[in-house]
Specification:
The protein has one domain. The chain has two helices and no strands. The radius of gyration is 19 Å and the shape is elongated.
Length: 63
């Protein structure tokens, strides 16, 4: 529970200071961070798909 609250607080602080962060990073920095976050999200999605396919294959081969 403490970890969830800590993460929620950190996200709150980051979102609350988004205006200041956008001034510091500038347009190019925001684009770079957006691409990095997008890459991470795609990697997580691919991992879910690969895990599901491996699970399906293992389940069908075990029968």
């Amino acid at each position: 529970v403490a970890a969830i609250l800590l993460v929620a607080f950190v996200i709150f602080v980051i979102l609350r200071s988004a205006h200041y962060l956008s001034k510091i990073l500038g347009a190019a920095g925001i684009v770079a961070i957006s691409r990095i976050v997008g890459f991470i999200v795609i990697a997580i999605g691919i991992q879910y798909i690969v895990s599901a396919v491996v699970n399906i294959i293992r389940t069908n081969l075990m029968k």
